[in-house]
Amino acid sequence: MKLKILGSGTSTGVPEIGCTCKVCTSADLRDKRLRCSAILYTDNTTVLLDCGPDFREQMLNTPFGKIDGVLISHEHYDHVGGLDDLRPFCQFGEVSVYAESYVADNLRMRMPYCFVQKSYPGVPDIVLREVSPGQSFFINEIEVMPLRVMHSKLPILGYRIGKLAYITDMLTMPEESFELLAGIEVLILNALRIQEHISHQNLEQALEAARRIGAERTYFIHMSHHMGLHAEIAEILPENVQLTYDQLEIII
Fold first, then answer.
1. Residue 250 CA to its chain's centroid (Å)
2. Would you list the DSSP string of 112-180?
3. At 32, phi and psi to the nearest 5?
4. What is the pLDDT of residues 94-113, one digit of tens each?
5. Which of 24, 52, 96, 180 gives 20 to 30 Å between its CA and that of 69?
6. pLDDT under 50 in the chain at which residues?
7. What is the pTM of this model?
């Protein structure tokens, strides 16, 4: 499997509009962060993880082909704002979007034109498939295990796919989810900034969660400009922990 990071930033992206801090004005391309998303490839299947408002821009730099499924972590705009831009991919057939029932309900309210009985031409042909934490399902040959994490008080989903786990926007995780992550090799995990935050892990909390999960390799994602310069933070991380950046490719 290969995972490509499409966006490694938080809801405002980096640079943040109007900001002139050293991160937002950095010339290092690793400090340019679109909204958080990734795409997973196997020999037979392509799976998108979240579909934020930068999806169109992200896919202009990605080979065009069928998307077999979209895994949604939660309904916040920076994770679902690009669903309408799935339109070109519907030439290959309907696109299945996997989400919890309450998220699916919110998407039906936000995009009612996609789910009416008689839609107008050009509407994205997306099908909502409801999933639950702890109940695995398949996208072609890929087994996907949704797992519960908490975004402050909001219950959201992380996903385990084989030896890979993808978790974003987490603040805490229940014990049963730690158990579902036993034996993973690659962990993608959110780390927003240095300071504590009301609904996201900061760097210290993310490092502690990574130590407990115990993956061979951990990559941090969903970072704001308050995390600091990529080059400087990379110097202080443990050997098996890295920051992601847009267009990074990870082999699992």
1. 14
2. GGGSSSSPPTT---EEEEE--TT--EEETTEEEEEEEEEETTEEEEEEEETTEEEE-S-SB--HHHHHH
3. -100, 110
4. 999 999 999 999 999 999 99
5. 180
6. none
7. 0.97
Contacts of 156 (CB under 8 A, 6+ apart): 73, 74, 100, 148, 149, 150, 169, 170
Q: Do the bridges between strand 46-49 and strand 37-41 make them parallel or antiparallel, or are there none, so unpaired?
A: antiparallel
Q: What is the pLDDT of residue 61?
A: 86
- Kindly state the DSSP code that residue 87 receives in the 8-state scheme: G
| Rounded Cα gap, residues 201 and 193, in angstroms | 8
CA atoms within 13 A on the CB side of 119: 12
Look at residue 120 in the predicted model and tell me its pLDDT.
77
State the sign of the Cα–Cα–Cα–Cα dihedral 219, 158, 173, 168: positive
Whether residue 68 contacts residue 140, with contact meaning beta carbons closer than 8 Å, is answered with yes
User: What is the distance between the alpha carbons of residues 169 and 198, in angstroms, rounded to a whole number?
Assistant: 11
Q: How far apart are the first and last CA of the chain?
A: 5
* Structure tokens belonging to residue 152: 């402050």
- What is the pLDDT at residue 68? 98
Q: Are 42 and 1 in contact (CB under 8 A)?
A: yes
pLDDT attached to residue 118: 72
CA angle, 8 then 20 then 38, to 5°: 10
pLDDT at 28: 98
Query: Which pLDDT score, from 0 to 100, does residue 119 have?
Result: 76
pLDDT of residue 229: 98
Two tokens, residue 250: 């990870």
H/E segment holding residue 186: strand 186-190
d(CA 192, CA 206): 9
